[in-house]
Amino acid sequence: MLKFPEKVTVKEVGPRDGLQNEQAVIATGDKITWINQLSLTGLKYIEITSFVNPKWIPALADAVEVAKGIERVPGITYTALVPNLRGLERALEANIDEAAVFMSASETHNLKNINKSIEDTYPVLQEVVQETINAGKSVRGYVSTVFGCPYEGPVSVEAVVRVADRLFEMGIGELSLGDTIGVANPRQVTEVLKVLLKRFPAEKLAMHFHDTRGTAMANVLASLDMGITVFDASLGGLGGCPYAPGASGNLATDDLLYMLEGMGIHTGIDRDKLIAAALFIQEKVGRQLPSHSLQTLGSCAG
């Protein structure tokens, strides 16, 4: 019998991970409206944007305006991706609650995503983590390609452990393990977590699955059974990694909520308000989003 927790934290990454790869240009005001809707759903954590150089991700060039324009709800952590000290300056100016730093477990993906080797990435992130902590903010880490790389294929768990060790040594509070191209399966998830949980407590780890091959929900179940209670998801299944070919489709927040609710696992999220927010952003991107929940409504925008 699988073991399931009584409650789970769902971290909404749609405004950043969802929109970063969209072809449609979403107006700044619409982003702000959407995040404000998300803030009323019961979510306690929303990743609102990225302070990466706008030339790399033009869709999020309005990061400061979005972060300053939203209505902050007490009790919610508003976080953003921060690549370097220049990005951190903008993020702190915009008064984010938390900075998320990111790198890959595979060398080639790291080079294409960050334009640096893994070894050369560490000192850059160390500066960001230290300055963020000095500013009184928390720091989250992302490690990509944990379960496979689009360029190198399988990634060893030893490579993941090396990166995780360094990020925790820097002072991050939580590490999100990314299945960047959606290749993981439940057995692999279990085997990787067996290794990592010998080194790090379960409450310090989160899972970030993509549903590229339809295995994200099964991988959530395997993670729950291993004691993981924090999951990243993107409303409607929006988005993917622009540097990982074929990686469209994050785990959909609305589908995840449906499964967890049905299993009696508490999330604190209001399903009706979440679906309303999903329909809003679906209309703005102008296409049917891939989540099963939205498809059952039979609505198609655009």
UniProtKB/TrEMBL annotation:
Record keyword Metal-binding present: yes
GO process annotations (BP): ketone body biosynthetic process; L-leucine catabolic process
Keyword Cytoplasm in annotation: no
UniProt domain Pyruvate carboxyltransferase: residue ranges: 8-275
Listed GO MF terms: hydroxymethylglutaryl-CoA lyase activity; metal ion binding
Keywords in alphabetical order: Lyase, Metal-binding
PROSITE patterns for this protein: PYR_CT
Pfam hit, one: HMGL-like
InterPro entries per record: Aldolase_TIM (IPR013785), HMGL (IPR043594), PYR_CT (IPR000891)
Family from the record: Belongs to the HMG-CoA lyase family.
PANTHER family associated with the record: HYDROXYMETHYLGLUTARYL-COA LYASE (PTHR42738)
Name the record gives this protein: Hydroxymethylglutaryl-CoA lyase
